[in-house]
Amino acid sequence: MIARTNGTPISITGLGCHVPERVLDNAELSTIVDTNDEWIVERTGIRERRIAAEDEALTDICLPAARRALEMAGADPASIDLLIVATVTPDMAFPSSSALIADTLGMPHAAAYDLSAGCTGFVYAIAQAHGMLSAGLAKRALVVGGDVLSTILDWTDRSTLVLFGDGAGAVVMEPVARGGFLGFELGADGGGGANLWLPGSGSRKFAEPEKYVKMNGREVFKFATRVMVSSAEAILGECGRTVADIDVYVPHQANVRIIDHAAKKLGIPQEKTVVNVEKYGNTSSGSIPLALADAADDGRLVPGKLVLLTGMGAGLTWGSALIEWTHPTTGAAA
Question: What is the CATH number of domain 1-334?
Answer without folding.
Answer: 3.40.47.10
